[in-house]
Structures are given as C-alpha cells and as structure tokens.
C-alpha cells in the first residue's frame, strides 16, 4: 500500500480532526471492510501503514521495547502503530485524533454520537482519552448512568480498538514510552502508563463499535485465546457475554 493509497479523500468530512486506522497490510479483507464502511459514514481517514512486522528492526526494538518484553511480533506491530499515531499527531501539530483498529463493526449512528461526545468533552482539561468500543463487552455500570451524560471516568482503558486521544495525552504518553519502554500488550501498557501519568480515561455510553476479531467476523492473530476458535464459537461466546454484561450484570449487580 502506497502513502497515497493509505489516505481517503471525501468531499464532505464527518470530522474536523484526523482519523487513523491501525492496519496491517496483509489483512487485505480488513482494509477493504474499513474503507467501505468509513466512506459510507463519510469519515475521512488514513491507514497507519508503518511498523508492519517486517519493518520491526533491532533498532526499533531497542527504542520502544523493554529488553525482557514477552510479546509476539504481531502484538509489537500493533503497539508500534498506536505509537506512530501519537508521533504523527505531534509532528503534524494535531489537537486530537480518532484512532480505530481495522476490524470494527460500527453503530449506524456512529458519526452523530461522536458529535454528542465531542460536545460533552469540550470542558475537559487537556490530557484525556475517550474509549468508544465495548472491547470484551465492558460497559458503564447501570447505577452510574445519568440522564444526558455519556462520558464517564474510569480507571482503565476498555481496549485499543477505538478511542479519541488529545495532543496533551499523546505527548505525555510518548515521553513516558521513550523513558520506560513498552513491556506489555498496548492496551495493558496504556493502563499502566495512563495511571502513572494520571491521565483521565473516559468510557462512552453508548459504545459505538464492536471488534470483529472478538465477535467472530474476523480471525485474530494476536490473542492466543481466540486464535484457534471457530467463527461460530466466537460469535456465540461474544453474544452470550454481551447478554450477561450489558443486560444482566450491568443492571442487577
């Protein structure tokens, strides 16, 4: 994929800030899927083509990862693509960015809900992230929900499949990474990093995306617990977890 091919160009953009899609070039079906869906939604975007597994040299390993890190090459590639997004934000002086992984199933009202969330986030002090996906069916507890509120502070990221990050959070994360190095899969690492930096993490309600590699739409190559599971089994498991966590535990625990 060339640089020109990695950037979409729509006549009417849904957002006035960049949208980056974490994408591995060999997942061609995911690339086609994301392009079709985002163009249908009117979302201009850029694929993050840097740091495919073949591009991870010993020099890159030394710069970003702890010497004793226990991560697969796929997990390292994914982590580095998230890092590259933040580097591009700094290089391009971007105030915020939407980061999406390439296996997402979107809410039909994704763009409208995003504008609701953006309006609610206007008073936030610089240095925050907003988690937009449900990850492994993670939801704001029902007892915390308030009328006309859609963003809720939490102590951890849901995952890294879909989130908004502002420039201050990106800069602080990058500095922390270069000093402390990555030693965990990127979602767990962000939990550690953001906690140390005291960066606020907000969960959205409603959630706006599901991960296709969790609900059986796409095969995963990173999560060892799902690699050899059939699509039907993953779909059934995800649906059951959603029923339990979204509609039972959330309201009756």
Question: How is this structure best summarized?
Answer:
The protein contains 8 helices and 9 strands. The chain has 253 residues and is of the alpha/beta class.
What does this protein structure show overall?
With 253 residues, the protein is α/β, with parallel strands linked by helices. It has one domain (19-214): Spore Coat Polysaccharide Biosynthesis Protein SpsA, Chain A (Alpha-Beta Complex). The protein contains eight helices and nine strands. The protein has helices at 28-41, 58-64, 73-91, 110-121, 167-180, 186-197, 212-215, 231-252; strands spanning 19-22, 46-48, 96-101, 104-106, 129-131, 151-154, 162-166, 201-204, 209-211. It is globular, with a radius of gyration of 18 Å. The model is unreliable at 1-5 (pLDDT under 50).
Keywords:
Spore Coat Polysaccharide Biosynthesis Protein SpsA, Chain A; alpha/beta; two-stranded antiparallel ribbon; 253 residues; 8 helices
Topology:
Elements lengths: L18 E4 L5 H14 L4 E3 L9 H7 L8 H19 L4 E6 L2 E3 L3 H12 L7 E3 L19 E4 L7 E5 H14 L5 H12 L3 E4 L4 E3 H4 L15 H22 L1
Parallel strand pairs: 1-2, 1-3, 5-8
Antiparallel strand pairs: 3-7, 4-9, 5-7, 6-8
Helix pairs in contact: 3-5, 5-6
